[in-house]
Write a structure and sequence with these properties.
135 residues; five-stranded mixed β-sheet; 5 strands; binds nickel (II) ion
Length: 135
């Protein structure tokens, strides 16, 4: 088994809050992440595909192809968007890194043309990231 990873970046804004809670409760749980007018991040997304090397091409998956799959299904829908309001696949979700990442998995899992989706990672800051493997 071999693992191929493509890194993509996008910029987006969000406000972390639970609409079922009061502003005070939201502020207690989420602190400044819950400021009413939101804030932005330069997110890094890493997508890892697992599989076997094709004897004819020497590739598991052509990285140009993987790039196109990630951009058309995920990055174009998230880049320069408000994650609370602008993204169909995040509707009614609190846009934490965890929830964003699980939703990205759903967008990508059936679209990988060679090998299979193995792991995705989302970096919200240099020091904080989450990883998901679909279970
Ligand atoms: Ni944030």
């Amino acid at each position: 088994m071999i693992y191929v990873t493509r890194r993509e970046v996008f910029s987006a804004s969000h406000r972390i809050f639970n609409p079922k809670l009061s502003d005070e409760e939201n502020f207690r749980i989420y602190g400044k992440c819950s400021n009413p007018n939101g804030h932005g991040h330069n997110y890094i997304l890493e997508v890892t595909v697992a599989g076997e090397v094709d004897e004819n091409t020497g590739y598991l998956i052509d990285l140009k192809l993987l790039k196109e799959v990630i951009r058309s299904n995920v990055i174009e829908k998230l880049d320069h968007k408000n994650l609370n309001t602008d993204v169909d696949f995040l509707r009614n979700k609190i846009p934490t890194s965890e929830n964003i990442l699980i939703a990205i998995w759903e967008q990508l899992k059936d679209k990988i043309p060679f090998g299979k989706l193995y792991s995705i990672k989302l970096y919200e800051t240099e020091n904080n990231f989450v990883e998901y493997r679909g279970e």
